[in-house]
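User: Nicotinic acid mononucleotide adenylyltransferase. Structure?
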Amino acid sequence: MNKIARSVEFGYEPTNDSRKGTLIYYDAFDDHASSVGLNEAAAYAEERNYEKFVLYPIHEETAKRMGIASARPYHRRLDDLHEWKRDAHLPDILIEGLDGKRKKYTPIDTALRHMADIYPKPFFLLMTPEMANRFASYSSFEEWITRLRLVLTERPEAPHPKLVQASRRWDTLRDEAKNS
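Assistant: Predicted structure:
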């Protein structure tokens, strides 16, 4: 506890900020990430009152290593995201550019550590079921699933065994919207 005495005005009440945490949408943002899906994710972030909503587009080298074959060039996908953000009039959405700066393969661990240093906790990682299955196949999944919560765009048809094991640590976007 801080031992420095402080004085405040009579009647002062500290602000109670109801906005908490960061929602990180980690994806290639290729053809399947349509503006409808992005709008749905933005509506979810607004509804849940997250402090930050971050889009993290992965570099084509990262996509290749993860087994995503048809990732368009990074700069084109980034331009599409900026255009969607402008058209949707959502200035509060952040687009993380770490992969663009590195211009090479960036492991998901490195990306998550980078965002953990910058953005406020707790972390919610929004992913497609395919991306979540890939993430669950990595050895670092068990470490990260205790530090963040997954939000999947839809229920996976064939979830990875580690994803099934950690089922209490993830929800689906559409199920959450129905329950609200």
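The first strand starts at residue 22 and ends at 27. The two ends are 38 Å apart (CA to CA).
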